[in-house]
Design goal:
The longest helix has 21 residues, at about 135-155. By secondary structure, the protein is mainly alpha-helical. The chain has one domain (about 1-160). The relative contact order is 0.13. It is built from eight helices and no strands. The chain is elongated.
Length: about 160
């Protein structure tokens, strides 16, 4: 019984101690000139859908929920945000090469059509981020239109990966 109490006391101390080890917050102090709005035409209704459903993970500014203050949940969220920004960061979209812009727009369409995004683990708590059928269609149509505009601006070999023969 004494051993069990000691183990529980040590675990309690560890749980409290990890609360002081916090991940860095994903918060940019100033607007950036390389965001998607500078590289793409984003109608207000599309921007609103992206803000609510995508930007928390795919931008340089995250609205953190209360449970992000509890570790190790905060670490888990930080990892998700870091991984998401590696795939797509709307605040850095303007720096992407044309091929990456084109591929990223295609990936946005695919992820939304296949219900891969937003993540179910995100929409459990953020009910407003669940995409309605209208929201999905709006973002998919916008993504296609932006890819079409890139096709007009750049030659096909710049945008599409050519399969080796």
């Amino acid at each position: 019984m004494k051993l069990l109490k000691r183990i529980l006391a040590i675990l309690a101390v560890l749980v409290v101690a990890v609360q002081f080890i916090r991940p860095e917050r994903n918060a940019s102090a100033s607007p950036v000139s390389t965001d998607a709005a500078g590289a793409l035409v984003i109608p207000d209704e599309v921007r609103q859908v992206l803000l609510v459903s995508c930007f928390d993970c795919h931008s340089n500014n995250t609205r953190y929920p209360w449970y992000a203050e509890i570790q190790p949940v905060g670490w888990w969220l930080a990892g998700h945000i870091r991984d998401a920004k590696e795939e797509l960061n709307f605040d850095e979209f303007g720096t992407y090469a044309p091929r990456r812009k084109f591929a990223t727009l295609r990936q946005i369409e695919d992820e939304i059509a296949e219900r891969g995004m937003p993540l179910p683990s995100y929409t459990i708590v953020h009910k407003d981020a669940v995409l309605s059928p209208e929201g999905k269609n709006l973002v998919i149509a916008w993504s296609r239109a932006m890819r079409d505009s890139l096709r007009v601006q750049y030659p096909p070999e710049t945008l599409e990966r050519q399969s080796p023969r």
